[in-house]
Amino acid sequence: xxxxxITEKGTDERPTVPxxxxxxxQYLGTTEGYGIFENHRKTGWxxxxxxxxxxxxxxxxxxxxxxxxxxxxxxxxEVIHCRICSLTQDGRDRSPEHVRLGLHAPPHSKLAQFLPQxxxxxxxxxLSKTASGIFTSxxxxxxxxxxxxxNLYVAGVxxxxxxxxxxxxxxxxxxxxxxxxxATAAISSAMQEASLLTLEDRYARIKETDEVCxxxx
Length: 217
Fold this sequence. Notes:
Layout: E1 18-23, H1 47-74, E2 78-84, H2 96-101, E3 126-129, H3 134-137, H4 140-147, E4 151-157, H5 159-172, E5 176-185, H6 189-199, E6 205-207, H7 209-216
Parallel strand pairs: 1-2, 1-4, 2-3, 4-5, 5-6
Helix pairs in contact: 1-7, 5-6
């Protein structure tokens, strides 16, 4: 059999080792009455957009992330969790970006807690960050290298911010990223659609939960 030319477009002979990355599924930015959504009028977003986002997280994203986590765990594949959480109670270690945006989840606070239905179990990896970019603000790249991970499936919030940043960086660093479209949410349907359109086939594959679960199984 003739060995394929690995320089040919679309070929990649590296072994496939998948992992699931769950981004910012915590009280700070997903739940009415907490953090960003403690006072809707302060966000500057339209009320209908806020309700769209909160409904999507509750009714679509969380159930699908539960399914994804179960699929990866059943195959003994890594499920990695990241959250916004400072190292200090007063948040003095936060990035200028998070200071400007007023994002602060102190250690051990309710805002830093993962939502219970998608929280880490056993000794799953948990990374805390104080910037949008998980790769720039944590040692995720180093850890993935140690684990031999090549394929990164990404779920969480917000699609147009932290999720997009993770996907772009993963692509630049040589991973094969897949964004799980129905396990992510942006603050409006327009932002969700624009983010997927921007990322698809350029920085990541775009798949739905059913497709990913089938791939993994």
